[in-house]
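Consider the following assembly input.
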Amino acid sequence: MAMENWAFTRVQTLADSGIQTIPPEYVRRVEKTHHDPNRFQVPIIDLQLGFSSQQHDQYDSIAAQISRAAENWGFFQIINHGIPDSLIARVQEASKAFFQLPTQEKEAYANEAQNPIGYGSKIGYSPDSEAKLEWGDYYYNAIWPPDMRDMSKWPIQLSDFTESMDEYSRELSKLFELLMEVLSRDLDLESENSLNESVGGERKGLHIRINYYPPCPQPDLVVGLAPHSDPNVLTILLHDQTPGLQIRKNGAWIDVQCVPGALVVNIADQMEILSNGKFKSIEHRGVVHKDRSRMSWAVFCSPPRDVLVSPKRELIDEQHPPLYQGASYGEYLTKFFKKGLDGKGHIHDAKQQDSLVSNS
Ligand SMILES: O=C(O)CCC(=O)C(=O)O
């Protein structure tokens, strides 16, 4: 199959073509994985079906586990989170159907150079970028509230896509608010709703990135998704139980183990900033396989672009100066998309110059 213009060939098309040697645009130096499942395990927290009420017997103990994980890991998995398996299966089926559409039909939703919304193949889409391509295609759009969706890129013809996304995003909104409530309490903020209000309250939004990583003939030479920390507040990720998500822990890349029924939660950059560095936004990446595809569904909880995010006032005093400059979320995001995925580069840029000197 002739493919002169690799950069604009979807990874799925490339993989389906049966090539045995991948195009040079995808080849990069990939840091090795540290395989020692006994040494490091991302914490698994049993939410006992949402535990939303503070009347719940186990509230304090579960909240303490969440806070410790946010501080020490920046990543954790939640089980018994209250989202029905049947709903998760519907979200997965409806979005698998998107990637099974004929190429031409998917291309009707293709995103544009300066706007990630829609069907795409790489984040960090600067035409001048030297960045290598990634072994994965994705679909990206706002999912909640529904009026934020770009309907020109919404695959309305897919059966159950809209309904399952509606229900899933309603459930996730509750989970995000629950997590922010727990983290506000841990920071001893003036109210449990404090973090939620700082990220826009009712105006905050959810976006989904559905990742499809096809099998790759030379998986050790590529990444499915380059190392990055997320620019938003909190992320909840679902995957298809194929390994591939890795986090950097103490300098080493380790696998996030597959736990049936679990959702993976991660602290993202705006939460690290709000907590003045107490909660950690951790670098992660996606790796791929020779013989199997993988899918994941990352849902990002974000403030509206005009909301200024800076360390919470209550956390600042003479002994605890602000470690990050405040910026509107829009400004932060513009820089993030301009630079592309870049480890923890963005949150590093947001650090105050004097704190960089003292913390480096
Ligand atoms: O595929 C994964 O597990 C990671 C996805 C992710 O980090 C993202 O979409 O930002």
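DSSP finds ten helices and 14 strands in the chain. Ask yourself how this observation constrains the way the partners meet.
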